[in-house]
Amino acid sequence: MYSPLYTCRFTKLGFTLALAMLCAVDPSLARGGDLPMDVHADNLEMDRDNQGIKATGNVQIVRGEEMDLKADEVGYSDKTKEIQAKGNIRLLNQGDQFESDRVVINTDTKVGHLDQAKLHLKGDGGRGGAQGVELLGPDNMTLTDAWFTHCDCDPPPWKLSAGTIDIDRQE
Questions:
Q1: Residue 148, Cβ neighbours under 10 Å: how many?
Q2: Contact criterion met (CB below 8 Å) for 103 and 111
């Protein structure tokens, strides 16, 4: 019985070779748009029909200077340009730092969603937490059931709490 899903197990050293083999089948698979995407993980599954990969165990995906994602499990589809991650997530995205349980993000549009997130915005942009974070592109986001402060001390002497907080760095 033929199955388009190929399961491969690699050590971290062998993963580079596996990614090279995957790219030989479809070079765009390891690219999220124009920037190359470096993937490191304990295990990798490849799905040729969906032009996708699923990485598990100590996963790290680095995409140039704009994204560094660490998680327990990550799936990527080249057809949709979408990354889905679960478990112990640490995301550096466009200079902003997030911790979350679940992330879905499009590598082309920079639109995505994070569940149960803590965030620290680049520069002196502040920090906070939210039940949900909607990434609306590289400069905008909406926090739902959230708190936000510019203070670095813990606990902060003040914080803004709201059902919805919109952050627009273009204004």
A1: 20
A2: no
For residue 32 the two structure tokens come to: 């999220």
User: Nearest Cα to 120, choosing from 144, 145, 90?
Assistant: 90
Q: What does the pLDDT look like over 61-77, one tens digit per residue?
A: 999 888 999 999 999 99
For residue 39, the cross-strand partners are 61
17, 9 Cβ separation under 8 angstroms: no
If you write DSSP's letter for every residue of 6-66 in order, what string do you get?
EEEE--HHHHHHHHHHHHHH-GGGGEETTEE-EEE-SEEEEETTTTEEEEEEEEEEEETTT
pLDDT digits (tens, 9 = 90+) for 73-94: 999 998 899 999 999 999 999 8
CA atoms of 30 and 37, how far apart (whole Å): 5
Q: d(Cα 28, Cα 1) in Å, to the nearest integer?
A: 28
